[in-house]
Amino acid sequence: MENSGTTDLHVKKFDPVMVAPYLPLPKSTLQLSTIDNCIILREIANILLVYNASDSISVDPAKIIREALSKVLMYYFPLAGRLRNKENGDLEVECTGEGALFVEAMADKKLSVLRDLEDLTNPSFQQLFFSHPLDAGIEDLHLLVLQVTRFTCGGFVVGVSIHHSVCDARGISQVLKALGEMARGEIKPSLEPIWKRELLKPEDSRYLQLDDFESLLPTSKVEKMVQASIFINSETVKYMKQCIMEECNEFCSTFEVLAALAWIARTKALQIPHNETVKLFFIQDMRRSLNPQLLKGYY
Fold it and tell me: Domains in the chain, start-ordered, CATH in brackets?
């Protein structure tokens, strides 16, 4: 049993357990799309679901969610497998049926304490998720982890950790919807999941050759990386938009203003020479832009 905590919140975690699909499934190997194989998507996405206490609920939420997870994995069986590296550097999913990881935990405070944790980098939040070892390779990562943490008031939170290479944001919400349906006693998800990654495989797989900016980056070793949340209020955003309008006579969206501010700060921090051109890439949901569109249920 693991005991961890900070000055704000103390969470006692029980030993993790593997939850396999409700029925054994045949083993197989699934390919990822070109987009899924992007390096920037090879990370764990964390989502925190918060549920207040209810007098009408007398069952153990951890037990219900654990049983629902086993049933969900029957339909979303790739999440019960593991990622594997191919010889060309791409990833594939080995559907081994090992299962997803499930963790039960107890917090020493009421659920209302979370309202005081506005800074998402607060270590207290990290206790509500399962943490893989820092030296874990991509083939060692669990594709789906659920941690159910109960609070003294009867409320609970579900910390969801899911690998982005296997499931995008829309797909994650689809999985969680299915989990809720199974927890409420439904026989199967209302939306049938569809893998079909070949729909996003390009006919021409040539790669664009980008300029090498390695020589532009500082060679000195970074002593310490710091994670922080920066809060910019609406008045500041409004002021920046107004300045741009007065100087350039152009309207900018809130996203454009904040992205430009962050990108300028980053290029300064990297000490990139002023005469160099840098490009900003960002991720967005492209489903509505596709023609033909992806099949309903694609995750």
Answer: 2-200 (3.30.559.10), 214-277 (no CATH)
Nearest to 32, CA basis, from 169, 168, 192, 208: 168
Distance CA 18, CA 64 (A): 15
Looking at the chain, the whole-number percentage of residues with pLDDT higher than 90 is: 53
Spatial separation of the C-alpha atoms in residues 96 and 21, rounded to whole Å: 11
Give the whole-angstrom CA distance, residue 215 versus residue 164: 30
**Is residue 283 over pLDDT 90?**
no
Tens digit of each residue's pLDDT (9 = 90 or more) over 129-166: 998 887 888 889 999 999 999 999 999 999 999 999 99
Which residues lie across from 105 on neighbouring strands? Answer: 13, 149
pTM: 0.78
Q: What are phi and psi of 129, to 5 degrees?
A: -125, 155
- Cα–Cα dist 100/15, whole Å: 14
Cα 180 to Cα 121: distance, rounded to the nearest angstrom: 28
